[in-house]
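Supplementary Note 3. Input sequence used for the single-chain structure prediction.
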Amino acid sequence: MGNGSSFDASKSVFLEIEDSVEKIVFSLHSSTRDIQELICQAAKVNKFCEITLRNSDGAYVTVSPTIPQNTESNPYIVEIKPATATSLTTLQLTELLSGLATVHNLDQLSSQLVSHSSAATVPTLIDRITILEKRMEKEGLKSVEIEKCKKSIDGIRSQIYEAQKKFIYHSMLSGEHAMIPEIQSSYRRHAVLPHYTKYTLSKETIEYLKQPTFDIWHWEPNEMLSLLEHMYHELGLVKEFNINGVTLKKWLLCIQENYRNNPFHNFRHCFCVTQMMYGMIHLCKLHEHIAKEDIGILITACICHDLDHPGYNNTYQINAKTELAIRYNDISPLENHHCAVAFQILSNPETNIFANCDQETFKRIRTVRPSVVLI
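The predicted structure, written as discrete structure tokens, is reproduced below.
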């Protein structure tokens, strides 16, 4: 199947240079100066030489991207005049040197060179420009290395920041419900969880929420929390699992806290996936086909499916031999980690929405939900 990127946006022209026929190919988006330099390169002359083209009839041909295409048997004749002090105009020098100066702060050198261009000889000017170009290349390489160092420093800062947070949360999570060290470094919660404002949802919003076309981008975090809470009430999950209302709020807040501020795998992504499942439940009328317990597992799995996502996929985790990959023996390290964090949150009575379920029900949840996340 073709697309715009496969369109040939180039042109080829044949040139006669000192009894030798050369072929040049250039983009239709090239500038006149680009084509002139390409011709100079083909003729193996300095790029500041004056280039003139004639056709077989002796008529002048304009050097531009719109130059008529020709054949090898009918090439354009190239006439070359060496660069002179008049041809290497002050304007050309200013244009070239201002470009160099923009990148490397050579304003003073640029002005000096341009002010003396009328008196200087062409070879001297070209030599000095060549020196500047070489210097620009070296400085450009240095700039690349500096950018790499900056990124490395930013990475180290992020690691230090995460390590500090892990230490703080480690200190908070002690006592009866203390975790094993590996999971403890990932799980985060407030010593005193804050409250979020419960919004009164309009009938239009309630109905719109059931649609797969629901726009997730127009809602603030607190509004998303209220919408998730509404889903549990509307689907009858609060009654099914005998969930305490305060515990549900605390659980949702703790879930939000344990989603990192990633570009994609963040709390809004969690809400997006959950809302789509909620919309599919209503669109397909799943409540007529599967048990309410299974619907609760589906919704809860959607909410927890990317908990504490570090921002890098399984392939990276395995290839980089990260702590997660080692812990789970390269077997779906992220998915296993998401499940582990989810059940660690449920291990805290304050955030265990299934605390009032009987042992058999919780055993089914513990068995089924990891499979849903792994899928």
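The longest strand covers residues 10-17. Confidence is low (pLDDT under 50) at residues 1-7, 101-107, 116-120, 168-186.
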